[in-house]
Amino acid sequence: MRTYGQYCGIAKALDTIGDRWTLLIIRELLALGPCRHTDLRNGLPGIASNLLVDRLRELEEAGLIHREAAPPPVATTLFSLTERGRMLEPVLRELSRWGVPLLREPGDNDTFRTHWLDMPARALTDHRPDQPAIALQLHADGNEDLVIEVKDGSVHTHAGRVDHPTASLTGPPHLLAATLLGELDLSAAVQQGLRLSGEREAVLRILPR
Q1: Are 209 and 191 in contact (CB under 8 A)?
Q2: Which among 30, 45, 17, 23 has a CA at the least distance from the CA of 121?
Q3: What is the 3-state secondary structure (H, E, C) of 165-194?
């Protein structure tokens, strides 16, 4: 293992999680929960299969992930975060927040997965915890869906769909991201092409103010 050789918490942390792709693997496992190797490959476009194997082994040796055999009919190896691995969530949340200005101009060749909005969605606040539970569905053009469930003041997310969402937001990734992160007012986002269906107030209930 490469090391900075410095007796410093930041340096020691980077010895463990500073290699390319490592934090993005953590991002995938935080967003999706236990994953197969193929799930991780799908969420990490561009990573070589052998490099992913190496990174998973290193994370397992560091005590950040563990693997287990899933029972039939799945019958494959699943990777999931340990408690210490889950402790990286606030680190990734702050990195996501810090990176907001860098999302204003998406690159022509940038890939995107809707569940990458999971981290900014986790930071949302229920401004009306006294109101009934709601489910919001996000869909970035050409991608899978992300569901934001709000109940009793808590916000939870998961990949997939719900049968009858309270409201849905559909559109290009940069508009979805800017709206969730409070960089763009909902009305302005709709004017620029974001499509809203269902209860507008349900969406406003959780957006940054």
Answers
A1: no
A2: 30
A3: CCEEEEECHHHHHHHHCCCCCHHHHHHCCC
